[in-house]
Amino acid sequence: MIWNLLFWICLAFSLGIGVVYFRDLGDVSQMVLKVKRRNMIRFIRNEYKFIGAGLVAAVVMAVAHLGFGAGPDWLFWSALFLVAFLYGFPWVWVHLGLRNQADKASFFSIEEAKKFVAPASQVLVIENNGKARAHPDYEMMRPHLAGNDEGLDGENVVMTYCAMANLGLGYTPEIEGEKLELEVLAQHGNNLVLRDNTSNEPIQHIYGQRERDGRRGPGMKPWPTFRMSFRGFQKAYPEGEVFLNPPASNLFLRLLDMVTDPAFSIGINRQHREEQPVMDNMSHFDDRLPNKTYVWGINIGDDAVCYTQDFVVENGNLVNAVIGERSVVIAWEPIYESIGAWYNDSRLPVTRIDFFGASDQGNLRRVETLKPGLFWHVWVEFFKDTDINRITVEDQAA
């Protein structure tokens, strides 16, 4: 009697945990389900506790059936198959399929990269003391994180990338001097949710702050990140490095990548093409711009503004604005095919600036919080009170 009771209780418990695991971290589940953020955060924090409890229940179920004849044979084997799938698929997808290269990425010369990156391809760029790294969108799509022990001219900088948001951001993977062990776990609001494996605490990609600390808490140091064409990168940084994601040497991982890469490509192509998000777990809708408009967002303090390329070009390729009580200039550079944003502390409007920040008001520093070329629907999901195309009229007129 007791073993029959244990069989049914453990079967229900093990399958229940498996269903929740698949729902919250299975990723593809979000194409048909609207996963609640609080549930996802709870599972990210407690992933291995939940998995461990569910698998222990599955073992007890197996002992009850195989050792004491509890439960129907067909049900036991069906449940065992479901447990293997519900636990195995999310774990393999997240921890192997999405394995990152935060500390072991390979960077190649421009000449080598030309074999794999087309001239018009978009690349995400970070630069330090004239040394620059380019990260093509396609190469970043699956690993999501790219960095290495050498750092960027000695600085510990990791490029983080969310294909669903079309957003790449350079971060120093530390908070308050504590080194983070970053891993990609999920996405919500069409933006990555990372986890610091040293604390199991989730980190929203677009904010760079731990969930427990809130929006006003400490976060990872952002590095100025900008988009440009690959041919523009070659002109600006002829000695620059390019991230490439070569095939894995491990046969199993290479076969796994042959499945995950096309799956990513199909989903991301739809994300760029269709009005509705492919994974519609959004909580906010704003029709001031079409969903899939590319915007360049800047947040300084509690103030947030985004710009479209058309607006910047229509205003003579240069816009002066005040964001978070800081004067900022946003400019389109047609030679390098890039929109940039710089702080302007001169208190005078900028009328001329080049790609490297040299202006009629001196050499300016890039804005480190620029979010370059992400989708409007993602930007407004996380910065709901954003202005669009703000301009300081008197400065612009001058």
Query: How many helical elements?
Result: 11
Helix content: 25-40%
Work out the radius of gyration. 24 Å
Largest sheet: 5 strands, mixed
Quote the distance from N terminus to C terminus. Answer: 87 Å
Strand percentage: 25-35%
- Number of strand segments: 25
The strand line-up of the biggest sheet is 1-15-3-2-14
Which regions have little confidence, pLDDT < 50, spanning 5+ residues?
A: none
The tally of structural domains comes to 3
| Backbone structural class | alpha+beta
Mean pLDDT: 94
Overall 3D form:
elongated
Summarize the structure.
The chain is an alpha+beta fold. 34% of the residues lie in helices and 27% in strands.
Structure description:
This protein is 34% helix and 27% strand. With 398 residues, it is α+β, with helices and mostly antiparallel strands. It folds into three domains: 2-97; 106-179 and 213-244, no CATH class; 294-397, no CATH class. It has a five-stranded mixed beta sheet with strand order 1-15-3-2-14. Strand 19 (326-333) and strand 20 form a beta hairpin. The longest helix has 25 residues, at 73-97. The chain is elongated and about 85 Å long. The N and C termini lie far apart (87 Å). The model has no long low-confidence stretch (mean pLDDT 94).
Secondary-structure blueprint of this entry?
Elements: H1 2-25, H2 37-45, H3 47-68, H4 73-97, E1 106-109, H5 110-113, E2 122-128, E3 131-136, H6 137-140, E4 145-146, E5 158-162, E6 167-172, E7 174-175, E8 178-179, E9 182-188, E10 191-196, E11 201-204, E12 209-210, E13 221-223, E14 226-229, H7 230-236, E15 241-244, H8 251-273, E16 294-300, E17 303-307, H9 309-314, E18 318-323, E19 326-333, E20 338-343, E21 358-359, E22 362-363, E23 365-366, E24 371-375, H10 376-382, E25 387-388, H11 393-397
Parallel strand pairs: 3-15, 17-25
Antiparallel strand pairs: 1-15, 2-3, 2-14, 4-5, 5-6, 6-13, 7-8, 9-10, 10-11, 11-12, 16-17, 16-24, 18-19, 19-20, 20-23, 21-22
Helix pairs in contact: 1-2, 1-3, 1-4, 3-4
